[in-house]
Amino acid sequence: MAQQSVPLGTWDEDPDGASILLATGRARHDLLVIAEPAFLRDLDQVWGRPSARVRLSFLPGVHAPSAPGQEDALMSYERGGLGVLVARGRTSLYEGESVRSTTALARIASGARLRAALLVNRATPLRGSGDVAGGAAPGQVRVVSDHLNLSGGPLFQATGMVSASWDANLTERLGRLRGVSGSAVAALVPGPLRPSPAESRVLASVGADVAVTDSVAEAMALASRGVSVSALTYLDAPAAGGNLGQAQLSLRQASGVALAAVEAVLRSLQAGN
Q1: N or C: which end of the chain has fewer CB within 10 A?
Q2: How far apart are CA 175 and CA 208, in angstroms?
Q3: Would you call 94 helix, strand, or coil by DSSP?
Q4: In terms of Cα–Cα distance, which of 272, 267, 271, 273 is closest to 84?
């Protein structure tokens, strides 16, 4: 949980989340899930039709995702009396967008009385295909426990230094889920190139297990505003020069892990944690 909230700055296009209320008709959402549709297949089957659906790009400052496999869609559900926002796409740094665009959804959603967020993404494993220290291999699902910001700039605008971190309780819960292969430290990089062998060695030497281009920025924008944040990352192709090997879990299997994670976070919220 964040230690303090960030004072609103000029980046906050919709600080009260009014556009989400307008789009969904719901005054409060307790949980935000951001994931590409490939990780939402099981959720789609189990949860059925949402109570509301709107384009992500309807929200001020949020750009329609341009990467393959992402959707310009934001869904609203009610589960056990809790409101859940599900974003079926995101804007990543490798698309050439600014961090301001990458974090726009997170900053708007945090104004809608959000309590927790679960981010699901893909990552590049930095430590080979399981045959070197760390064991990060394609097809693994890891829970993000910490990060390195190597994006080259601030993740959001503030009037001073603030504290923000991954939620330890949610991270521990997700780490116990079947199909999760342990934790990972994620390095936020701009892309679009995957880390070279030399870059991979350097990143690993300073404690990173995987490289990402999105979720760290989203997470810290949320956590700095008092939202409890957790993330799962699916390891796909390794860093340049790495051995692809045999994927441990398919994307289809990973979607089942993602649904279990969403349900685990909801149970935590219902229990008042």
Answers
A1: C
A2: 18
A3: helix
A4: 267
pLDDT in tens, 148-160: 998 887 777 777 7
Alpha carbons 199 and 202: distance in angstroms, whole number: 5
Q: Is 166 within 8 Å of 230 (Cβ atoms)?
A: yes
What is the distance in angstroms between the CA of the first residue and the CA of the last residue of the chain? 11
* CATH superfamily label, 18-270: Nucleoside phosphorylase domain (3.40.50.1580)
Distances 38 to 117, 167, 219, 258, 269 between C-alpha atoms, Å: 18, 25, 20, 10, 25
Domain boundaries, the chain: 18-270
DSSP secondary structure letters along 9-61: -TT-SSTT-HHHHHHHS-S--SEEEE--GGG-HHHHHHH-S-SEEE-GGGSTT
Q: What would the pLDDT profile of 212-244 be if each residue is shown by its tens digit? A: 988 898 999 999 889 999 999 999 866 554 554
Q: Is 126 helix (H, G, I), strand (E, B) or coil?
A: coil
**pTM tops 0.85, yes or no:** yes
Query: Distance between CA atoms of 115 and 122, rounded to whole angstroms?
Result: 24
Tokens of 168: 């330890």
In sequence order, which residues have a C-beta less than 8 Å from that of residue 16 and are 6 or more positions away?
111, 112
Alpha helix (H) residue ranges in 116-250: 168-175, 197-205, 215-223
- The pLDDT, as a whole number, for residue 142 is 95
User: 50-79, pLDDT tens digit by residue?
Assistant: 999 999 999 998 989 988 889 999 999 999
